[in-house]
Specification:
single chain, seven-stranded mixed sheet
């Protein structure tokens, strides 16, 4: 019963914030597992998440990375930031109440991987381009930017990344993880 209540509460919050969350419900367990498959569990790495939401991908990412790594999680919704900071107590997590386009403002040095659940396809083109350029610039060579979308629009990422692999997850609706590698 608690799980259903939490999912309903999350759905209400996401619906209220549809323009920034781009979702009406949490991503699936399949997405939680798949989106982080390109992240290394080597020690002392730096990872970034765009779109903390209610923390389900955040927690899955923390479960995957090493105990000495860091996860910088960007979220524009202050209520979501507060919720996740109460829900997840982990010294590796740094929650940043700011937009993904400002990654360089908050993180100095190269990033070992980025996972993103922000609704990048509904953003204005200039914002989308800024996020992708800043993400590419922040990543180490060979690192991945992995994005969940509900559409197979890999051409958005091709101009920025040398390699894009799209994994389709059978769900309702269909979910696509775009794994974009910096060559």
């Amino acid at each position: 019963m608690i799980m259903n209540h939490n999912r309903l509460k999350t759905a209400i919050q996401l619906a209220k914030n549809i323009k920034t969350s781009g979702a009406l419900y949490q991503t699936s367990k399949k997405v939680e597992r798949e989106i982080g498959t390109r992240l290394s569990n080597e020690p002392e790495m730096v990872f970034v998440e765009f779109g903390t939401g209610h923390g389900n991908i955040t927690q899955a990412t923390l479960n995957r990375i090493s105990p000495t790594s860091k996860l910088y999680s960007f979220e524009v919704n202050k209520d979501f930031c507060d919720h996740v900071s109460e829900l997840i107590t982990d010294d590796r997590l740094i929650i940043i109440n700011d937009g993904a386009q400002n990654i360089a403002k908050h993180i100095k040095g190269a990033v070992d991987g980025i996972v993103s659940s922000i609704p990048i396809t509904i953003f204005p083109e200039d914002l989308r381009e800024s996020i992708l350029k800043e993400s590419y610039a922040a990543l180490k060579k060979g690192a991945f930017y992995s994005q969940i979308l509900y559409t197979k629009r890999g051409k958005l990422f091709k101009p920025h990344f040398g390699e894009v692999q799209i994994n389709r997850l059978i769900n309702i609706p269909l979910e696509y993880i775009h794994h974009c590698k910096k060559l």
